[in-house]
Amino acid sequence: MSLKLCRNVALCDTGQALVLLDQSSGRYWQTNATGAAVLRALLAGATGDDLAEQLAARRPVSRDRAAADIAALIEELTRARLTDTTPGPSAGPPAGPPAGPSSKSSSGASSGASSGAAGGGR
Hints:
PQQD, PqqD_sf, Lasso peptide biosynthesis PqqD family chaperone
């Protein structure tokens, strides 16, 4: 399984976070630093299991907790129609540090409205 951005989603990498804009609804999501790193890696083709192992080795988190948080991030992004899972290889951007969306959750993601709150407005 690989993760890819949906066609209507624009991605902006701020270095520490990722901002995803659903261009059809005007809603945006901003990840935290860990969520950004995870999302970058998933879009580059990494698996959730591989990432959970890496996070557990580098951070004070268990492998099971990391796996659950990664699964929650994927579920949240898919439910929001920002990403899609496919059986083949990913067509996303190059790998980088993990990230997540803007309605704060344990998965590193949070959402907001685009009425100027995302900076710049429309």
